[in-house]
Structure formats: C-alpha cells, structure tokens
Amino acid sequence: MSVPKDIRRISDTVWEIPLSHKAGMLVPARVFATEKLLSEFDDGVFEQITNVATLPGIVGHACCMPDGHWGYGFPIGGLAAMDPECGVISPGGIGFDINCGMRLCLTNLTYGEVQPHLRTLVDRVAGRVPAGVGVEGTVRVSRDEFCQAVEQGARWAVKRGYGWMEDLERTEEEGCLRGADASRVSEKAVDRGYRQIGTLGSGNHYLEIQVARAENVFDPETARAFGIVLPDQVVVMFHCGSRGFGHQVATDYLRVFLAAMRGKYGIHVPDRELACAPFRSPEGQDYFAAMKCAVNMSFVNRQVILHRIREVFSEVFGKDPKDLGMRQVYDVSHNTAKIERHVLEGKPRELLVHRKGATRAFGPGMPGLPDIYRKTGQPVILGGSMETGSYLLAGVDTGDSTFFTTAHGSGRAMSRTAARKRYRGRQLQEQLEQRGIYVRTASWSGLAEEAGGAYKSIDDVVEATEHAGLSRRVVRLLPVGNVKG
Amino acid sequence: MTPPYRYLEGIATADVAFEARGATKEETFLAAADATLNTMVEDIGTVAPREGRVFSLAADSLDLLLFELLQELVYHKDAGRLLLRIRDLRIEEAGSGYRLHAEATGETIDSGKHALLADVKAVTLHRLVVERTPDGWRAVVVLDV
C-alpha cells in the first residue's frame, strides 16, 4: 500500500493530491479520511480519484469519501461535480447499480417485544422479498406498465397501494427524478428488469432488523425528529438498487460512450471505465434520461420492499402497520448523477454532481429537504456490515466542500475471494446467532463474503465524516435480524 | 481437472476478477464464460444442457468481443433466468474487427439444484484484456457483483 508521496495534509481528515501529481488533472483530488483510514486505502483509490480529476468540465475537487475503495473508473466513494455546459457525464461516475441506496423504516416496538418473533419476522420477510441470483419479484407488470413505473418512480408504486403518500416526501427527490424517458432505454434493459420489482439482489445487498439502544443515541433531539424515541426501539433498514434494469442501462451506454468519446468528441480518458460524453450532447442527454429511469426503478423497488416489510410486521403482530408506527425515516441514493444548485467560488451554480458510493447529505434549511427535516438536516443512512451495525447521520451546513456529500457505508477492506477463504458461511451464521443476530441468506459463500471482518470499521468512517464536517452522528443501529441477498 | 481460469486478488476489492487461459482465442473465451458462470454457481457441472441459445456478435477488438459475449450470459441470467454454458464458439476476423458465433446450452435457475453464489450485475471494462502469451492466450476480466 502506498499513499502518494505528494499528498498534502489540509487537516486531520482532509488530504489533497495536487495538480502536478498526474498529467491532465484539471482540479486537485481530495481524500477525506483519518490518517488510519488513509493508510488502509488500496492503491487503486489514489489512481482512480486522480483519473477522475482529468475529466472535462470537473470543478472544485475530485473527492473520495472515507469509505473509499478500488472500483472501476471512479473509486467507490467517488464524487465529481461537472459544469453542465462544458463538462461530461460518465456512467463510471455512477456505477452499474444506478441508485443503489438505503431506506430506513421505524416501528414503535421495542427489542423486548420483537425478540420472541425475530425468527418468524426474518423468515417471512425473506419469503416475501426475493433475494439472490436472477430472482423475480412478486409484483407482476407488463413491459408497458414497467416503462410507466420507471418514468414515475415511487409515486407509481404508492398509487398502486404499495406504500403511503408520506413515504414520498421522505424519499430523496420524492422518489422520482423528473425527465426520465423510457424511450431512451433498450429492450434488453426492460427484459432484465420488468420482472424484478421488489427484489433485493445479492452481494452486499441486505435487509436488516436493527435496534437503537439508548447508549447509541448521540443526538437525542435529532433522533427524536427522525422518529427514534423509545429505548431499544426496533427499526428496519435495507440496501438495494435498480437490479438488472439499471445494470443494463449502464452497460448499454458504456458502449455508446466508448464509441462516441474518441471519434466524435475527441475526448481521451485514462481508463475506459471513465467513458463519457459531453453532458449537453445527444448521447449525454439520452443517457441522463435513461439513467433517471433506472434511478426511478430503484425507488419503485425499495417502495415495494418497504410495503412487504410492513405486511409481514402487520401479520406477525396482528396490527395495522400505521398502528405499529412503521413510518419511513428516509430513502437515500448513493449511485447517481443529478443537477443540483451549489455555491462555487462564492457564486450559486448549477452543477452535475456524480456520486458513486457516496451519499447526498444536505444541511439544515437547504432546498430539496422536506419540511420535517428542514431544521435537522437530511437524514443520511450508512449501512455497515451485518456484524458491526449501521448509522443514521444528519447532513450539516459545513458540507459545501463536498457539495454536501458524505460516505455510504463501511467500505470493503478485504476482497470477496479472501473473505471466502477466511470465513465459512454456516459457521458465521451460528456465531452470529450466538451473539443474538439471526441471519437468513440466499448463499452461504455470499454470507462469508459479507463477514464483518471483510469491511473497514464503520465507526472510523463515521468519525472521519464528522471531523471533516460532512455529516454528524445521530444514532448507531445494531443488527438483530438479517436477510442477506 | 483444474479449470482453465483462476480468480484474482487485488484488482477490485468489492468485485470479482479472473484470469482465463487457453491454447487458442476460442478456448480462452470458453474459459472466461465458465469463469463468469462459476461466479454465480458453485458447481457449473450442475447446469444441465436443457435449452439452447445462439449468439452472433461483433466488435472492433478481441477484448470488446469477449465483453459482448460475457454480457450475453449476464443478460440471459436476468431476462430468462437462464444459466448458460458456451459449448461451441468460433471467432473470425471481419474487416477491421472480429465476429463471433457461439452456441450455448443451459437451464433455468433452480436454487434447489444450483448452489448459487453472487449475482453478476455487469461485465466491466476495468483492466479488461485479451492477449497472446508465449503458450497461447489469456484474458483478464472484472465482473461487477
């Protein structure tokens, strides 16, 4: 592992790699990390974030979050804002799993009330939210209906009874990126996605029953505003994305951009995964409209999954989900590109913000937040490993250095192959059960790959975001039941 | 028998990278297709040849031709819930690029029969390479899982 020799310490948690580091860099790169996390970064992070700094139209800094790790094109944890008039859009800055994100739902139940039913809850949710390789969902739609769904987003699902109207205002972009155009999406993408609404996927995707213990509430006032009001309150968190639909949209446009980039637009990038096109070009606008469909598919997917969770809790406890207090806290995306207004060099500007494995974290009072969170700042949901727990954070008004962006999770520290060699799925499940965490998995080796030891410490990541002024801790949430994709 | 591919460490932490080898381009492509299937299924021998698919693909370069072939396997895994093995494959030069004709067989995903592993989301271009070696050909592929 080698941290670049020319990296400069800006503060205890902000590091800068200068323009002189690599030919073609248009802005410096900034890495947000404690010294410990910085020393743990893999080499690919530095190579990739300095490659991002060469993309046409990039402004400010190319940034990497504290949970950054080696991806393709951008590092995971990468952030780049472009001038939409002269800059590019790159699928590599968003990821194949467009709008992969997190959703958190409350209950008014305590752990003591849930514990006797934990196995039943996990088993039934696992039955109702299909997970694993190539699974189909339980919502049957025609291809045409699917195209309507991806243009309308979560509202489509709520209109069909999958959720509550108030869920929409508690979802980033109210669950729909406007301008989604299904005619910009390939038949193949629809083929892959239209049967997958309401599915979890696999890899690091999961659905977890968690507990907010009193000693893990860092900011009681904000926690209350977010709905965490009881000692040992049970919540449900899940992590998934746009499934095969989004993956195909990204693949299709990677091909388009690769062909157009060099010949038509004369753009040269250091890595083909950074394939891009001018944002205002026909290719750029087509991708943006298709990507929005994938963003919306993901909101639909999480909306339906939330509905299934409410159904299961309602059945097990014999009460209406509303009487169980199953309100959504928020839904955040960590793989997107969006047009947002930010202040750059003292002037308000419209920017195209790419976030790949990075979460929007708007501070108090910012436009785009629902009234309920205007005072607190945006709820930010950070998923940790199934062993170590997750966090609910809040956006802060000092987040402008990253265009109000923070981390998205723990970040992997160990490859999947290495994790499979070190851990055994069945053994891990038994160990977790002894610690009071009941896990259902679609794949034993997949479970081993997601062992807590394969990840960085989420506490370190969260501490770094807080010190760097990107977000602040509200509650740490501990897992007690987990459905692993 | 040792499969003609191996999974690689230290390329993309969260994803799956492999190297496939063969005496010919065709053998290398077949090995890469099996490595992709093996990322999703623990024992690719459990995938029975019940259904067939034919692929005719073209690309400007060999690495992009492999990208197109593996992407077909990923597509069918979702679109038809089909796990496919390439049984026969021909590659020929066509103008300034390459053309591929492949026949694949396989069956619908059955979690009772197939020990499933990770769901492959996409084939990436990250460090994608198909190259000649002193004793044949090798390919390196990173899959997004």
Radius of gyration of chain B: 14 Å
Mean pLDDT of chain A: 96
Poorly predicted residue ranges of chain B: none
Task: List the domain count of chain A as a whole number.
Answer: 1
Main beta-sheet annotation of chain A:
8 strands, mixed
Q: Tell me the fraction of residues in β-strands of chain B, as a range.
A: 35-45%
CATH evolutionary superfamily of chain B? Archease domain
Could you tell me which chain pair has the largest interface and how many residues each side has? Answer: A-B, 50 and 38 residues
The CATH class of chain B turns out to be Alpha Beta
Morphology of chain A? globular
CATH topology of chain A: tRNA-splicing ligase RtcB
β content of chain A, as a range?
25-35%
End-to-end gap of chain B: 26 Å
Total domain count of chain B: 1
Largest sheet of chain B: 5 strands, antiparallel
Percent helix of chain A, as a range, is 25-40%
Overall SS class of chain B: alpha+beta
Could you state the CATH homologous superfamily of chain A? tRNA-splicing ligase RtcB
Low-confidence stretches of chain A: none
Separation, N- and C-terminal Cα atoms of chain A = 31 Å
Regarding quaternary structure, how should these chains be classified?
Answer: heterodimer
Brief characterization of the structure:
The complex is a heterodimer of chains A (485) and B (145). With 485 residues, chain A is α+β, with helices and mostly antiparallel strands. Chain A contains 15 helices and 19 strands.
Give structural notes.
The complex is a heterodimer of chains A (485) and B (145). Helices cover 32% and strands 25% of the residues of chain A. Chain A is of the alpha+beta class. Chain A has a single domain, classed as tRNA-splicing ligase RtcB (Alpha-Beta Complex). In chain A, strands 7, 8, 9, 11, 15, 16, 18 and 19 form an 8-stranded mixed beta sheet that branches. In chain A, strands 1-2-3-4-5-13-12 form a 7-stranded mixed beta sheet, with helices on both faces. The longest helix of chain A has 36 residues, at 282-317. Chain A is globular, with a radius of gyration of 21 Å. The model of chain A has no long low-confidence stretch (mean pLDDT 96). Chain B is α+β, with helices and mostly antiparallel strands and 145 residues long. Chain B has one domain (5-144): Archease, Possible Chaperone, Chain: A, domain 1, CATH 3.55.10.10. Helices cover 23% and strands 42% of the residues of chain B. Chain B has 2 helices and 8 strands, in the order E-E-H-E-H-E-E-E-E-E. In chain B, helix 1 runs parallel beside helix 2 (62-79). The radius of gyration of chain B is 14 Å and the shape is globular. Chain B starts with a strand and ends with a strand. Chain A binds chain B through residues 42, 44, 69-73, 76, 95-97, 132-134, 136, 188, 191-193, 196, 201-204, 243-244, 247-248, 250-251, 254, 258, 271-273, 275, 412-418, 442-446, 449, 485, and chain B through 7-16, 40-42, 71, 74-75, 77-79, 81, 83, 109, 111, 115-119, 121-126, 128, 142, 144-145.
